[in-house]
Write a structure and sequence with these properties.
It is a single chain. The protein has 7 helices and no strands. It is about 65% helix and about 0% strand. The longest helix is centred in the middle third of the chain and has 17 residues. The protein has one domain.
Length: about 140
């Protein structure tokens, strides 16, 4: 039985093959990272994943715009807040996303996965909103 990491690598092969300007791959990366936060996860990984989900879902950024925001943030800020994982688990896992038929069905499953993961992180939403405002001027 494949691990989540192995399934995610298969999903990455799919998202990278799309070559679409909206860059769905970034959304999958952020959802997977945010869903797999543990106590020893580096703060930058958690914050960037959550910022990506916030920007995509609430500010309608494309995956490419999120990627550019990550690059901008990486250049000037080094001290990221430690956000502990929430106890709530996500009902959608990478396996169910990968099980969806390639194309619109799988792309939609990635979006639903992002939404489900972001929902579990709502206790930290205000921290992410503040960071987006302070660091990226996103209002």
């Amino acid at each position: 039985m494949p691990t989540d990491q192995q399934l995610f690598e298969d999903l990455c092969a799919y998202t990278l093959s799309l070559r679409a300007p909206f860059f769905l791959h970034q959304n999958a990366v952020d959802a997977f990272a945010a869903q797999h936060v543990e106590e020893d996860t580096k703060p930058i990984k958690t914050v960037f994943a959550l910022l990506g989900l916030y920007l995509t879902l609430e500010k309608e950024f494309t995956g490419r715009q999120v990627q550019l925001a990550h690059m901008r943030l990486a250049k000037h800020r080094k001290d990221w807040p430690q956000l502990p994982p929430t106890p709530e688990s996500t009902a959608i896992a990478v396996a169910s996303v990968l099980a969806a038929e390639p194309g619109p069905s799988r792309n939609g499953a990635i979006r639903k996965w992002c939404e489900a993961v972001w929902q579990t992180w709502q206790p930290h939403r205000e921290v992410i909103v503040r960071l987006a405002q302070d660091e990226l001027n996103v209002v």
